[in-house]
Specification:
single chain, mainly beta, 2 domains, 8-stranded antiparallel β-barrel
C-alpha cells in the first residue's frame, strides 16, 4: 500500500446530520455506509447511539495485508474517530456519503468514500471462526445488485478471501459465504454464515 489521503482531493460540503432520521448521529441508528475504493478495497461503517464500528478489507491484491476492525465514537455531529491496537482512522459523514482515512501500522493511509445504505442488506457482517473474527462488507450498487467482499482469518495469522455462495442473500442464518483455503496454501474450503455486526 502507498501513502494516500482524501483530504486534498476536493472540498467536501458537510450536510447537517439532522437529515439522518431527523436526529443526531450521537443518539439514534444504526446508520450504515459502505463502499469500495478505486483499488478494489472495501469498507463499511455502522454508527449507533454515538458508537462507531468500521471494517476495512483488501481485494485480490491486498487481502493479505488489509483486514481490520476498528471501534470508536462520534466526536461531533459529522465526524468520527476509530482505532484498534495498531490501526486508526478518522472520517466525515453526511446523510448520503462518508469520507474516511485509515492508517495502517506502517503509517500508510488508505482512503474510502462510502455511500449510505441503499438496501436493508447493506452493512457489516462477521463470524468468529478458528480463533479470529472474519469480516465482510455488503453494498448494493445503483442497479440494485448486492456485492460482498471480506477476509477470513485464523489465530495463526492466515488470511483468505471471503466470497458469497451464489447471489448475496440474507437468510435467518445470515449470508452464506465460502473461503477457499487453497489460495493460501492450506487444504480445503470452508462454508460459513456471516451475521450482522454492530458497535
Amino acid at each position: 500500500m502507498t501513502s494516500r489521503s482524501f483530504w486534498g482531493h476536493a472540498s467536501v460540503s458537510i450536510l447537517a446530520v439532522a437529515a439522518l432520521a431527523g436526529g443526531s448521529l450521537g443518539c439514534q441508528g444504526p446508520f450504515v455506509w459502505t463502499g469500495q475504493n478505486e483499488n478494489g478495497e472495501a469498507a463499511g461503517m455502522v454508527v449507533s447511539d454515538g458508537d462507531v464500528l468500521v471494517y476495512v478489507c483488501g481485494g485480490d491484491q491486498s487481502f493479505l495485508t488489509l483486514h481490520s476492525w476498528l471501534n470508536g465514537e462520534v466526536i461531533s455531529n459529522n465526524s468520527v474517530q476509530v482505532y484498534s491496537e495498531q490501526w486508526d482512522g478518522y472520517g466525515y459523514l453526511d446523510s448520503q456519503s462518508a469520507w474516511f482515512d485509515v492508517s495502517d501500522p506502517q503509517g500508510n493511509f488508505v482512503s474510502f468514500q462510502m455511500d449510505s445504505a441503499r438496501d436493508d442488506i447493506d452493512g457489516l457482517y462477521e463470524v468468529f471462526d478458528s480463533g479470529c473474527r472474519t469480516g465482510a462488507v455488503v453494498w448494493t450498487d445503483s442497479a440494485g445488485e448486492a456485492h460482498l467482499q471480506g477476509v477470513w482469518c485464523d489465530e495463526q495469522g492466515n488470511r483468505a478471501q471471503v466470497t458469497p455462495v451464489g447471489p448475496v442473500t440474507l437468510t435467518n442464518e445470515g449470508i452464506q459465504v465460502s473461503i477457499d483455503l487453497t489460495q493460501i496454501g492450506l487444504t480445503g474450503e470452508k462454508t460459513l454464515y456471516v451475521t450482522r455486526a454492530e458497535p
